[in-house]
What we know:
The protein is α/β, with parallel strands linked by helices. The protein is 39% helix and 19% strand.
Amino acid sequence: MSKINVISGDICTLEVDAIVNAANTTLLGGEGVDGAIHRTAGPGLIEECRNLRGCPIGQAKITSAYNLPCKFVIHTVGPVWKGGDFGEEGLLASAYTNPIRIADNMKLHSIAFPNISTGIYSFPKELAAAISITAVRKALKKYKSIKEVLFCVFDEENLEIYNRILSEPSP
Ligand code: APR
């Protein structure tokens, strides 16, 4: 039985099999969690990312973790929130499903997500939390290698939202 937990803090400190990076389509780094992951990993990460030749929105690609305490980094690209009429919800769900699929293919057992798209990409936090939890619960039914998913929140608002939604009975 796989577990879903919430942890508050810096995803760069987590000693899980894989942490997920909220990247952009170039995979060449940025601010926010992307910047933190690249700073902590060191220059080897950007070198490997250059060879990946980008990543479409909603898709994901895996790299080594270099100086990070985790084993792998799975880079995904969330959608920019444009009001909700441009397929943002489905793309955000894919940005959670595809990293789990890749982790399962690699026979990994633990994966940590930041709150993808809810920072610079302005996705509403409440809606993003509901989409992410639904997508993860659905993916865990299919991808059996994953034993633990951590939602790594970085602010009080997301902590309250995730704890509230996860305490509700799942449909
Ligand atoms: N650990 C965990 N979560 C973090 C960390 C960290 N060290 N730093 C930031 N966060 C949180 C933010 O507070 C937010 O809740 O990650 C969530 C995602 O925010 P962003 O990093 O801004 O990502 P996103 O909204 O998906 O925008 C992606 O930002 O950095 C650029 O290159 C990136 O263009 C891409 C865009």
